[in-house]
Design goal:
Amino acid/polyamine transporter I
């Protein structure tokens, strides 16, 4: 950490003062400094592209073609704003989000938020195991083999590995998302139409269109991402001097994750939508439907992406939940701790892995109903978490000079209000569909 802080101070002076050869060396040096802090922002953003997220993006492309691509621009901006506030709170306060919520809003509100988060995340964790099962079955491998093996591998990685090793493995898992870019090119979309729809907003008051648009936002900005990124920054030991690099990590991670999401929409729009396949019940169904149009390679690339995405989320989601519950209860937490040092943290993580694996092995599991239920919980939770984040980031008592600026604060509140309204709209339509 001293290396990172020293290097960050070292580069405050403009590089143009140095000779060209020295500037090149210093630029390369700073690039390696960035690589040293790389991780939390990229992992958190990519974990949002989980099995249920891929199913949502696939459904958007199949049902509405390219017409919702424009939404990724404001969604990317919104997620950047939220993620930057969380990493800033992490480096300034040295505390996780649940810690700050407990200190500023009291134990009762914290308990209510953590209970909702636990229920919602448990449901989503189960869906990640189901996603792994579906992806493996696309390759002809039984879920009764893949689920026990992958759950044991993730548990061993997190419980027995160091923080640095866990982060490296999670970053490596993120590379599978490039499969969706290749799949999109194999689908041969109309790139001129893609470009037009990306910059040309289109609106419809059709209930299905509103539902899909709201689901897009709800899938892209989820509470567990904010909890994980702040806790990961804190555990990594980042402080105020590292803020610019940590912020860059959050911005780069968000842009990359949202680009991958857009490529999933492009891929399914170019194949399924043009063939009249407008309804999907899972990401695995989307992968199967790609084969007759874009070829078997596109199907397998899509399946590999689904498997890797579910594996990444299967590790991040239980970790985010364990972080938040341990912080809220005031117990030790962190990947650097053993079971003896942090029994509650390791215990919560282990229990969530076991529950997810066991439930996902149940034959005939109603996955869609499960996802609808967890969407309801997240729909209620997201406005509360967003409002808490903006309030905390604007609190001079805990943030000092790092509190939100006037314009940043106005933008943050606007995003929180819009996303909260859309989240409640999604909640209402989900309840109606459920009954």
């Amino acid at each position: 950490m001293n290396f990172i802080r020293f290097s960050d101070r070292k580069f405050v002076q403009p590089l143009r003062r140095f000779p060209a050869r020295v500037r090149r060396r210093l630029s390369s040096y700073r690039f390696y400094v960035y690589l040293a802090v790389l991780g939390p922002g990229i992992i958190a953003a990519n974990a949002g592209n989980d099995a249920s997220g891929i199913a949502t993006y696939s459904s958007v492309g199949a049902a509405y073609g390219y017409t919702l691509l424009w939404a990724f621009i404001p969604m990317t901006l919104s997620l950047i704003v939220v993620q930057v506030m969380c990493v800033r709170m992490g480096v300034v306060t040295g505390k996780g989000l649940a810690d700050l919520i407990r200190e500023q809003f009291g134990v009762r509100w914290t308990a209510l938020v953590m209970l909702a988060l636990l229920i919602a995340n448990t449901g989503v964790i189960i869906s990640e195991f189901v996603g792994i099962a579906q992806a493996s079955e696309l390759f002809g491998i039984s879920r009764y083999l893949t689920i026990p093996v992958t759950s044991a591998a993730i548990w061993w990685l997190v419980v027995k590995g160091s923080q640095k090793r866990v982060e490296r493995v999670f970053l490596t898992m993120s590379l599978v998302f490039f499969g969706y870019i290749i799949s999109a090119f194999l689908a041969k979309p109309d790139w001129s139409q893609v470009a037009v729809e990306t910059v040309k907003p289109s609106f419809s008051f059709d209930s299905g269109y509103l539902f899909m648009m709201t689901a897009l936002i709800g899938t892209t900005i989820t509470p567990f991402m904010q909890i994980y990124v702040q806790s990961a920054v804190v555990e990594k030991g980042m402080d105020k001097e590292d803020y610019s690099l940590v912020r860059a990590d959050a911005v780069v991670g968000t842009i990359f994750a949202c680009l991958i999401s857009a490529f999933i929409v492009i891929c399914t729009a170019a194949t399924l939508n043009v063939q009249g396949v407008t309804e999907l019940d899972s990401a695995a169904t989307a992968a199967e439907a790609l084969a007759p149009v874009a070829g078997v390679y596109a199907k397998y690339l899509f399946a590999v992406g689904l498997f890797g995405a579910a594996m990444l989320a299967m590790g991040v989601l239980p970790l985010a939940t364990a972080y938040s519950m341990s912080e809220a209860l005031g117990f030790e937490k962190g990947l650097s701790h053993s079971f003896r040092e942090a029994p509650i943290f390791i215990g919560i993580f282990t229990a969530l892995i076991l529950i997810g694996a066991v439930v996902a092995l149940i034959p005939g599991l109603p996955q869609i109903k499960l996802l609808l239920f967890t969407q309801c919980i997240n729909g209620l939770l997201l406005p509360v978490v967003l409002i808490a984040i903006v309030s905390l980031a604007n609190n001079r008592e805990i943030m000092g000079e790092y509190q939100n600026s006037r314009w940043f604060n106005a933008l943050a509140w606007l995003i929180a209000i819009i996303v909260s309204c859309l989240s409640l709209l999604l909640l209402g339509t989900t309840i109606i569909d459920f009954f």
